[in-house]
Amino acid sequence: MEGPDAGSGAAGHAGGVVTRMTWKAEVDGGRCMASGMCAGIAPDLFVLDDERARPLSEEVPEEERVLDVADSCPAMAITIVDGGATVVGPRP
């Protein structure tokens, strides 16, 4: 299809709905030593609360810095899981 309407409609953006891919962030409170690395790397996603780290939301964006957070945790207390329950962070 050519013209100003090319690419619009269901094939373009699925009816105007744009989905954002997310991962799930889990912090093992028993392992967390409150180093603050996670909050330092992604303060909009992780905070220190009662001397333990926690994600501000269970869902986090699929971004490289989220994997950096899990990789940087000295206690290996942060796990990032994709929608299929596959662990994607920390990276090996």
Output the keywords.
alpha+beta; disordered N terminus; Ferredoxin; 92 residues
CA distance, first residue to last residue: 46 Å
What number of domains? 1
Low-confidence stretches: 1-13
Tell me which CATH architecture applies here.
Answer: 2-Layer Sandwich
Rg from C-alpha positions?
18 Å
Number of E-state strands:
6
Protein name: Ferredoxin
Describe the structure.
The N and C termini lie far apart (46 Å). The chain has a four-stranded antiparallel sheet. The chain has a two-stranded antiparallel ribbon with strand order 2-3. 20% of the residues lie in helices and 26% in strands. It has helices at 10-13, 37-41, 64-72; strands at 22-27, 46-49, 52-55, 59-61, 78-81, 87-89. The chain contains three helices and six strands, in the order αβαβββαββ. It comes from Streptomyces himastatinicus ATCC 53653. It holds the Pfam family Fer4_13.
Write a short abstract of this structure.
This protein has 92 residues and is α+β, with helices and mostly antiparallel strands. The chain has helices spanning 10-13, 37-41, 64-72; strands at 22-27, 46-49, 52-55, 59-61, 78-81, 87-89.
